[in-house]
Amino acid sequence: SSLSNAVSPWLLIFDNLDDPYVFKDVKSYVPNVLANGSILYISRHSDTARLGTPFPVEGMTEDEAVQLLLHRSQAETADENVAHAKGIAAELGFFPLAMDQAASYIHSHRLPLAKFLTYYSKRKAEILRHTPQLWEY
Questions:
Q1: Integer distance in angstroms from the first to the last C-alpha of the chain?
Q2: CA–CA gap between residue 35 and residue 52 (Å, rounded)
């Protein structure tokens, strides 16, 4: 009700709404009047498009994604690592946040790039929950 009565512009963000079935009552947090505000739902789940107008986000180029992954994971730029980084980038859709999150997981677990996709296929939920303690986002 506070946002419904707000005079100043406001923005309500629901970040990482990737499993809308877990947070079933998301609409109960939405004010009845949106005159001075906006709501942003950030999600990878296609059903959240029903909450408003979808705005798809494009990924990076393959080269950009590979550079980010290698830099942030502090992996050597050897040809073998570049090849594995390309596979990881493709699997994660070339999205900057996904690449940075994967790099953090790789770095903190001292995981060779060659093993990441195997770990990802078995531990996807754990990896997606991994957030570095010191993160810029």
A1: 29
A2: 15
